């Protein structure tokens, strides 16, 4: 399969995308937000993943509050809050709510309930603004606190974001011209632990540069933006691999790039000491989520800098991502219905080069797909602004194809619904559409880490940042006026 096949009709695509704005989404988020606060308020643990099998299948596993994923569940609450405030046409849900018309008329009470849940989930995140032990400050702070500032004008949230950017900047290593991602990398075959001899940088780090640019603009502190730009240039030379174009490659002028997950840089000379993977299959494989982080991170960097090199790199990473989707083995497709329709081709394998262990159920990473889709939407907007309308449209259509395929293939069929008590009680309650069938995440088939040398491996589950970036696609489309 050498190119993306004809995209579905606009009407069919919009019908699928309405799932992002559905009653099911609001119901699941509200239920988890309330139940996970029981004996956990203020939160010391945050939703991370939902097992698909086993004794705890269907229920969120809560991870320690200082883990890098802690910002995404509060971020999901704020994505819904953004819809309620800015896009009431899709809130509480697109289409009709299932039980009664009172739910649609009760959008204000649902919004009030949602807003009341934002504060307890965000307060511990705000307290992390002074952390200097992690590079993940963008992931931790921006999904909720930046939106709180932008939606409500909460000055404390803005100050937390700005402080967090300064904290992140302390991890910049001048000799390496990079922000240190991890202080150590310890797996069964490696132990990198020296802060003097090593500077470990991962492709994921591109996603935290947006925080530095945002704070730089607010503070008028050019040094923060300069750190971000220098880091991005170091990532290009140390984490990207040029790929040879083939007959099945996308027909465009962009050079293709795959990516390493990890590079170890000498903090004094800036020389590359080692390239490897920590979460992908192997050093030279292309870990799908790492590639997706690169697509979105470089697209964001271009938006701030307007440096065409960053847009070109983002396009090259995206082109290679699409190339690996359309040339994946036939086993990724699953036939649905009686009309010969298939789904699954645009749901990425967890690593594009890993052996497929189960042909009937290839291991995937839906989170990689929705992250890449967000990046491609940014690319599409940027290309349109510089007059490259044909390329812009192609990336937009690719985004739509990825997102619709992920929804059709990975949407959890265990759905939830909203209800208001007949007595007129304002508080919205949540129930399973089919009694006893519950799955807390919106999407399935995400993979956090399947590296064979990792001490903790977990895969094929719901994942909080898969849901976050799925809902962010929806909000991006709303901001673009396309929904």
TrEMBL record:
<dbReference type="InterPro" id="IPR012341">
    <property type="entry name" value="6hp_glycosidase-like_sf"/>
</dbReference>
<keyword id="KW-0378">Hydrolase</keyword>
<protein>
    <submittedName>
        <fullName>Six-hairpin glycosidase-like protein</fullName>
    </submittedName>
</protein>
<dbReference type="InterPro" id="IPR008928">
    <property type="entry name" value="6-hairpin_glycosidase_sf"/>
</dbReference>
<dbReference type="InterPro" id="IPR052369">
    <property type="entry name" value="UG_Glycosaminoglycan_Hydrolase"/>
</dbReference>
<comment type="similarity">
    <text>Belongs to the glycosyl hydrolase 88 family.</text>
</comment>
């Amino acid at each position: 399969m050498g190119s993306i096949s004809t995209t579905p009709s606009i009407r069919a695509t919009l019908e699928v995308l309405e799932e992002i704005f559905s009653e099911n989404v609001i119901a699941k988020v509200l239920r988890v937000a309330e139940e996970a606060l029981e004996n956990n308020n203020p939160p010391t643990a945050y939703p991370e993943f939902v097992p698909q099998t086993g004794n705890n299948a269907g229920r969120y596993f809560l991870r320690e509050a200082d883990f890098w994923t802690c910002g995404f569940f509060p971020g999901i609450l704020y994505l819904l809050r953004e819809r309620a405030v800015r896009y009431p046409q899709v809130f509480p849900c697109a289409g009709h709510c299932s039980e009664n018309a009172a739910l649609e008329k009760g959008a204000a009470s649902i919004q009030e309930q949602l807003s009341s849940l934002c504060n307890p989930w965000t307060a511990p995140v705000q307290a992390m603004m002074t952390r200097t032990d992690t590079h993940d400050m963008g992931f931790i702070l921006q999904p909720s606190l930046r939106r709180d500032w932008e939606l409500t004008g909460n000055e404390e949230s803005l100050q937390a974001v700005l402080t967090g950017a300064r904290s992140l900047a302390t991890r910049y290593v001048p000799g390496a011209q990079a922000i240190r991602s991890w202080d150590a990398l310890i797996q069964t075959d490696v132990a990198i632990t020296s802060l003097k001899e090593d500077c470990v940088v991962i492709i994921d780090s591109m996603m935290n540069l947006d925080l530095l640019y945002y704070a730089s603009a607010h503070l008028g502190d050019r040094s923060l933006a300069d750190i971000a730009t220098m880091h991005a240039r170091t990532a290009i030379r140390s984490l990207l691999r040029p790929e040879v174009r083939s007959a099945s490659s996308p027909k465009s002028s962009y050079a293709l790039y795959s990516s390493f997950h990890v590079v170890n840089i000498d903090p004094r000379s800036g020389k590359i000491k080692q390239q490897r993977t920590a979460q992908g299959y192997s050093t030279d494989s292309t870990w799908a989520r790492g590639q997706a982080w690169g697509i979105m991170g470089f697209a964001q960097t271009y938006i701030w800098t307007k440096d065409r090199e960053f847009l070109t790199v983002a396009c090259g990473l995206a082109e290679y991502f699409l190339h690996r989707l359309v040339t994946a083995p036939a086993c990724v497709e699953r036939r649905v219905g009686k009309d010969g329709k298939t789904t699954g081709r645009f749901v990425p394998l967890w690593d594009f080069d890993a052996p497929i262990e189960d042909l009937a159920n290839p291991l995937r990473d839906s989170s990689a797909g929705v992250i890449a889709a967000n990046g491609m939407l940014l690319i599409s907007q940027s290309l349109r602004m510089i007059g490259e309308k044909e390329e812009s449209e192609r990336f937009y259509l690719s985004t739509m194809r990825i997102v619709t395929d992920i929804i059709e293939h990975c949407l959890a069929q265990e759905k939830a619904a909203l209800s208001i008590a007949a007595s007129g009680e304002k508080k919205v309650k949540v129930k399973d559409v089919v009694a006893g069938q519950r799955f807390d995440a919106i999407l399935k088939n995400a993979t956090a880490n399947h590296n064979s040398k990792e001490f903790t491996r977990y895969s094929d589950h719901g994942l909080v940042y898969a849901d976050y970036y799925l809902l962010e696609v929806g909000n991006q489309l709303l901001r673009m006026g396309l929904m």
